[in-house]
Amino acid sequence: MEYRLGVLGGMGPQATNTFYQFVIDCTDAGSDQEHVNALILSDSGMPDRTAAILGSEEAREAVYRRLLADARLLEGAGCTVIAVPCNTSHFFLDRVQEQIGVPILHMIRETARFLAAQGLKRPGILATDGTIQTGLYQKEFAAAGIQAAVPAPQTQEQVMSLIYDDIKAGRDGDPRKFAHIHRDLLAQGCDCGVLACTELSVFADRHHLPPFYTDAMAVLAQRSVEACRRPLRRFFIK
User: Fold this and answer.
1) HSE (CB half, 13 Å, CA atoms) of 129?
2) Could you write out the three-class secondary structure of 129-193?
3) Catalytic residue numbers?
4) Fewer CB near the last or first residue (10 Å), C or N of the chain?
């Protein structure tokens, strides 16, 4: 069987680029042929997921229908597994999964399993307002026996500014904003932090972050390599 990874990306484009680099980096390949076969769909026209979740039913349906159309396109192109490097879109993915025949790797559940295996109990979730307010991470983590924390309201404003004003706007990201966020998590007694927005994965790729942080997109990349039965470079996730 030939395995092929479908990447449903474009949310945002730089995050998709960083995700594919992660896939390359965590594949223990000695030749082109040992890398993951991948088809990348960068649908940058996808409506904003946070705005849709916090908006009307019509807006949510528009995002769902577009995600489903993209997933069907990847399935029809012969992809055997799909990865979606966008945390907020996971609000819609269980419903999309019901309509297609190939598995969608669930980044949030995979991250919960990873933290549970590490014995971590109090992660701080850094994500968009949409991801935080819908409880996507909190619910999945609670099911794994993990009690998640979220930033204080003023700190969450800094998280959103880092995501939208910095990374999505093409900037490298302001380390002073992240330092404020880090202090908030420590004050809440967190034993780790989770980068639960792919724009924050881009920030981490450009700035040195302590091992306190687990990148959900890095977890997804490693699981993608495993799902495609390619040799894995162990300890890629720190």
Assistant:
1) 17
2) HHHHHHCHHHHHHHHCCCCCECCCHHHHHHHHHHHHHHHCCCCCCCHHHHHHHHHHHHHCCCCEE
3) 86, 197
4) N
